[in-house]
Amino acid sequence: MPTSKSTSSKSSSSKSASASQGKTATSQPEAVKLLVKDHREVSKLFKAYAKLVKDEAEGTEKQALVTEICTMLKAHTAIEEELFYPAARELIEQDMVDEAVVEHASAKDLISQIEAMQPDEELYDAKVTVLGEYIEHHVKEEEEEMFPKVLKARSDVDFDELGEQMTARKEELLGEMGADGAMH
């Protein structure tokens, strides 16, 4: 019966298969599913931004997309720092979580700089591009190193319950940021 497992989970795991290093989406707890889903969504937004730059789109169109990117990243980093990382700290080496927090700080600094700018300002596109590169690097480390270690060490942490808490907190944050339900 090995084929029935892969057949039943194939469609649900296709989006996150590379991120989970062999784990199917059905075996991923809700907390990891949520984070991986966010990673995919923001990656698509950065690709859409690169296309706007290439197509020399209007500043208002670029700014609207950047606002969506920044809002999503702020909510995502908040749920990781408030809920996921504290659970991860109990299970894996501290330096891995510390590095992720430092990467978040760098991204937040760049987000603040971008939010204070107008799309026609010098370095705007470059800063958004670099933010995308930071995030891509961060996502790769989380999905290829942190998540597998956390899931392997699971112990008594209920990552499905944690995922529910993270989803609720994300909705709350998006509502506070005026993006009520726009991104999830």
TrEMBL record:
Keywords (A to Z) from UniProt: Plasmid
Region (Disordered) residue spans: 1-31
Source organism: Aquabacterium olei
Keyword Signal: no
UniProt keyword annotation of Cytoplasm present: no
Record domain Hemerythrin-like: where: 32-150
Protein name: Hemerythrin
Compositional bias ranges of the Low complexity kind: 1-27
